[in-house]
Amino acid sequence: MFVKQFRYFSDNLGYLVYSKTQGVIIDAGGIDAMLKFAKDSGITIKAVTNTHMHHDHTSGNKDLLKATGAEFIDPRKITGDQIIEIDQEVLEVFPTPGHTDHCVTFKADDFIITGDALFNGTVGNCFSGDMLAFFNSLKRIISLPPETKVYGGHDYVLESMKMAKIIEGENPHIAKYTQKYDSALIVSTIQDELDANPYVRFNAEGMISRLKEKKLPLETEFDRFKSIMEIY
To answer: Which burial class, exposed, middle or buried, applies to 25 when counting CB atoms under 10 A from its CB (0-12, 13-18, 19+)?
Structure first.
C-alpha cells in the first residue's frame, strides 16, 4: 500500500492512500492535484474520509465526493477499531480522541496518518478537554514499531523544533530532526518522535530531569505528560 501527500492552504497536509487500482482520500484538500494524481495513476477513489471534522481538514469533501462518486466515511461514527479494504489490502482505522472527541488515526503496514493528534515534532491542542483520553491516544500511537512512518495533518516542523529546543535544549536529537526537514515531504518515524518531540518524551530521562527542576508533578506517565502540556 502506498501514500501520496498533498500540501494545501499554507500548511495543511492531505493524503491519498492507494494500492493497484483503488484509493482512499484522507483530509481532502488540494482537490485538483488529488484528482489528477488519481487519474494519471489509474486509481479509482473508493472513499473520502477525515482524521477529524475541523473545517481545514474537510474543506474538499463535498467537491471530491461529487467528482468521484466515492463513499464518505464519517470519523464521528468510528467508535472502535475498523478496517477499510483497498484492493484487498487493509487500511486500519482506530479512534485517537483528544484533539477532538472524534479524532481517528489510519494505519497501513508501515505508516500512519495521524491528523492533528500527533504532528511531526509536536502534538495538537487538547480541544476536547479530555487530557487523559489524549494521553491514551498518544500512548497507543507511540507504541507502534519505531520504524513506522508518521504523516501528520500540518507542517509545523520548524516551529515545533524551535519549541523543543526551548523545552529541552540539551537534547542532541532536535538538531538531527531539523536537519532531516524537507518541505516537499513531511514525514518522520515513531523513533524520531520519541527522540525529539518533547510532548511524547514523558518517559525520557532528560525530560523527567527537566520536570524535576521545575518542581512539576511527575509520579506517573500521565502526570508527566500533563505537566509538559500545561507548562508548554
So the answer is: buried
Instruction: Specify which residues 95 forms β-bridges with.
Output: 104
Please report the beta strands in 19-81, taking only residues with DSSP state E, as ranges in sequence order: 22-26, 44-49, 71-73
182 is written with which cell numbers?
A: 524537507
Pair type for strands 111-115 and 149-152: parallel
Q: Is 147 exposed, middle or buried (0-12, 13-18, 19+ CB in 10 A)?
A: exposed
Residue 49 near residue 25 (C-beta atoms within 8 A): yes
pLDDT in tens, the chain (232 residues): 999 999 999 999 999 999 999 999 999 988 999 999 999 999 999 999 999 999 999 999 999 999 999 999 999 999 999 999 999 999 999 999 999 999 999 999 999 999 999 999 999 999 999 999 999 999 999 999 999 999 999 999 999 999 999 999 999 999 999 999 999 999 999 999 999 999 999 999 999 999 999 999 999 999 999 999 988 8
Instruction: Tell me how crowded residue 69 is: count the other CB atoms within 10 A of its CB.
Output: 8
Q: Of how many residues is the chain composed? A: 232
* pTM tops 0.90, yes or no: yes
- 7 grid coordinates: 500540501
Distance CA 225, CA 107 (A): 24
Q: Is the dihedral of CA 136, 127, 145, 14 positive or negative?
A: positive
d(CA 164, CA 170): 10
DSSP-assigned letters across all residues of 164-191: HHHH-TT-THHHHHHHT--TT---EEHH
